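Open question from group meeting: does this chain pack into something compact, or does most of it stay loose? Before anyone orders reagents, we agreed to write out a predicted structure and look at it together. Recording both the input and the output here so the notebook holds the full record.
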Amino acid sequence: MLISVKNLKSIFKVHPIGTLHVGAHKAEEAADYEKFEFTPVVWIEAQEDLIRDCRLNVKKFPEKNHKFFQGLIWNEDNILLDFHKANHSQSSSLFEFARHKKLYPEIESVAISRMRTITLAKLLPDNVEFDFINLDIQGSELQALQGLGERIRELKWIYVEVNKKEIYKGIPLVSDLDKFLKNYSFFRVVTKWVAGSGWGDALYMRSDIYFGLSKIQQIQIYFTKCFYLLNFKIVMRVFQKFFFEIKHSLK
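Structure tokens returned:
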């Protein structure tokens, strides 16, 4: 996560009654979820072998705080799709590599398997409560939200990996997410981009939750957003100055 769970709580005032984490991988965030009271957590992972790793990683925490479901999440049920498994399991996706190959040449697609899809609306039991969702499924985030159905109205905060370039072929871009979530009164509060990559993480907040914050809290969020936007430019200026000085010192 490019924006830490600690900052989600302290700066953006995320305090969920429960967390839905789609794209569990190995449940690396479990310790932070426990520490900052984002539990109980429902973890969803497409790769069955990773579910075993998840269970091991949360073994030291109360069992009631962590539940696991295996499923290839999409906006339609029971559709056979190709799942592209990568040698770095966190990069596995329903979509083929595009810009990803240039950014991370050491990561390769090593296998393709046909898998059946399932929507969040169908997979999740009715008694599971959550108002914060964390989505990291390599390009399928919009489809996952579409497949949540009316339960999207239970959400207050959406943390999601976003793309402004095609890291994977044919994936929805951040503008598509903005447009879809606007229909449910969500807006993008902050985005933290990975410099020069075309992808990052974003936090969407339901408008009534945001405007329910104090003015001081809203200002704090605004300045944090500005920092994330300006940070890369500042770093580039420092590097340009550094290389300019080195170049002239060698003359």
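Observations to bring back to the group:
The mean pLDDT is 92.
Residues 75 and 146 are 5 Å apart (CA to CA).
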